[in-house]
Amino acid sequence: MDLLLVLALGLLIGAVLGGLGGGGAILTVPALVYVVGQPAQTATTGSLVIVGLTALVGAASYLAAGRVRRGTGLVFGLVGLPAALLGSWANHRVDADLLLLGFAALMLVAAAAMLGGRPTPADDVPGGATPVPHPAAGGAGPRGAVAPVLERTEVQSGSRTRASRTAVVAAAAGVGLLTGFFGVGGGFVILPALVLVLRLPMQVAVGTSLLVVALNSASSLLARVGAGIHLDWGVVVPFTLAAMIATLVGKRVADRLPARQLTRGFAVLLVLVAAYTTWQSASGLLGGGDEAGTATASSPAADGAAVVVTPAQAAAAVADGAVLLDVRTPEEFAAGHLAEAVNIDSASTDLTVRLDALDPEAAYVVYCASGRRAAGVVQQLADLGVTDVVNGGGFTDLAPVLPTS
């Protein structure tokens, strides 16, 4: 993946985060899947790093200003920890297309929340009474539609009331599940819970919610790393750094623009991305697989070589006799690979010759570290006349379901 493209995506997401005070994180997964070409599970894991680190930086700034209820944030995060672990466990076991369909539904919910709120007078005034930014919430932040409702409720409530323990537990569990399963911050759930349920002032709620996002992201990430989920640091690191920088720039630019128009524009963008995600995922579900459950790509050029089958589908294909092709470097292969896999370095100068020497009548499951290099090899095999070949994705995704060496 071109580094410039990764940086551009990071800058775009960061600008949205800083400009709208949230929501940009929910675009991270579609960007990693459809632009970078990562498998859905890998993208949601990378999103946890991006969202978590951005939230941590934001929480530190609020903590320095005394706008974080550390005790509340820690309790909220600890209550949501089991749900975050459950979400991470489920993420690795659900079909990638079903996962993305659920993500599309989540985007529509966030868009509806942003479009459904009533603006405050300051929303139409560039630079006027700008709410505090929430750079990693993953949903409608304080500049979004939820903020006016929360601010009015906070003023009207006048006095603090004892929060319902059931409501607190439900909200914390819901946020943890969203973070673990989808790799998003869940800001459109956290902020209402902290303000309406726990009666925190808006600015304190923003800082505290950043702490909750960071805690849930960290626990979800640890659960996935323990399960062997792959992280493409070559994408995650520049993406995160660019997003952090652009967050600050986006905030300054947005302060000069009408917040209501920005919020509505972003909500429309969410709807469009959700529609595209639904179309892609539905196509994968309707066209994926034979009766045995294997997703053989009879025409990778038409179906999209970057489409990654689930680990279960790859294992089924191998059980039916498919040959495993490991297209990583010899060094990566030597460090660990699937049993019986054939190593053909996708960067080797004689790649075409070696692929042409393969049996075009055989079935193949191609894998690498993330699925991106495998996509190129799948396409080349299709061009050479191989009709039964699939992109198996990353080695660490397949290792739990196939023997390794």
UniProtKB/TrEMBL annotation:
Annotated spans, Disordered: 122-143
UniProt membrane topology term: Multi-pass membrane protein
Main location: membrane
Lineage: Bacteria, Bacillati, Actinomycetota, Actinomycetes, Propionibacteriales
InterPro entries: Rhodanese-like_dom, Rhodanese-like_dom_sf, TM_pro_TauE-like, TSUP/Inactive_protease-like
Signal listed as a keyword: no
Keywords linked to the UniProt accession: Cell membrane, Membrane, Transmembrane, Transmembrane helix
Family to which this protein belongs: Belongs to the 4-toluene sulfonate uptake permease (TSUP) (TC 2.A.102) family.
The protein's name in its UniProt record: Probable membrane transporter protein
Gene3D superfamilies with a match to the protein in the record: Rhodanese-like domain (3.40.250.10)
Cellular localisation: Cell membrane; Membrane
SUPFAM superfamilies hit by this protein: Rhodanese/Cell cycle control phosphatase
Listed Low complexity bias regions: 125-143
Bilayer-crossing regions: 42-65, 72-90, 96-115, 167-198, 204-223, 230-250, 262-279
Segments forming domain Rhodanese: 318-400
